[in-house]
Amino acid sequence: MARQRHTDIMNAASMGHGKKPSERDSKICVACGRPFSWRKKWERDWEHVRYCSDRCRKAGKKD
């Protein structure tokens, strides 16, 4: 049990949890092109996050 908890903590830390905001992972929004950084609400599926906001997600990708 303790080993699993340690693994969970390490995985969370690598995603951005427990880091200063300036040290967190960031991405570029595919709709507006602006950079955005890791947020707690995206913790479970950060690798699938493509948009910085609901507004950009609803607008979709610009051509």
Automatic annotation (TrEMBL):
<feature type="region of interest" description="Disordered">
    <location>
        <begin position="1"/>
        <end position="24"/>
    </location>
</feature>
<dbReference type="Pfam" id="PF10013">
    <property type="entry name" value="DUF2256"/>
</dbReference>
<protein>
    <recommendedName>
        <fullName>DUF2256 domain-containing protein</fullName>
    </recommendedName>
</protein>
<dbReference type="InterPro" id="IPR017136">
    <property type="entry name" value="UCP037205"/>
</dbReference>
